[in-house]
Please model this.
Amino acid sequence: MPSTCVSLVCLLCFCACASMTGKSATCSDPEALFIEGTVEAKEGESSRTYDYRLLKPIERADDGPRPLLVFLHGVGERGSDNLSQLRYLPTWMCSPEWRTRFRAFVLAVQCPDDEIWVASWDDAGTCRAIFAVENAIEHLIQTEDIDPSRVYLTGLSMGGYGSWALAAHRPDLFAGVVPICGGGDPGTVERLRGLPIWVFHGTDDDVVPESDSVEMVSALRTAGIPVGYTRLEGVKHDSWTDAYRNEGAINWLFAQKKRP
Model:
């Protein structure tokens, strides 16, 4: 895992409303569509309040419970504004096309500036920030009309690491996971047995080495656990645009459902 976060600032340079699979899509104002919330989390005796945003689905008269998509942002979106974490996928999920197609809840917790989604840059284990995401998911399942068999997890860069960590910590919560340009602890793969996972990484990533994803994919396959892996040839760190828009990761996630 990289020991410095400086180069990850490049995550901020991409437009959140880029074209969608060759089609133009108008993104509605995410700040207006995502409601604000807070969640508490503890690690040992230390507790903290974390901000989150929640997009609610477009309602229909014949609706039942709807799926929940959980997004973990990258290091460049950390902070305390409860807004920066809406870059990329949460904003794209606001487009009329995707809101109509998926009709899902979308959760985006913001990691503070002084924390990351894993224990440390040298330890891909869980941490208080990840416990906050876990607590938010459980709270929303209890208070919103969410289908608990259709909860999905994805994240990019630092959020890719967080996706591996949270999936290993609570595999029972999720119907599918898409970690993008991240990495995890190969010692946790047995916990992921039975959980559908599709991994993405650019071959020319100059921020997070592709080997971090390859290590997890190899460990899963060695354990006889199925996993999808897409190597994006010639792509640098921004592998999420291809994964989410062109490679079908979102369609695949929403097709997953936990077995009873």
Notes: The chain has one domain: 25-58+65-254. Residues 128-143 form the longest helix (16 residues). The radius of gyration is 17 Å.
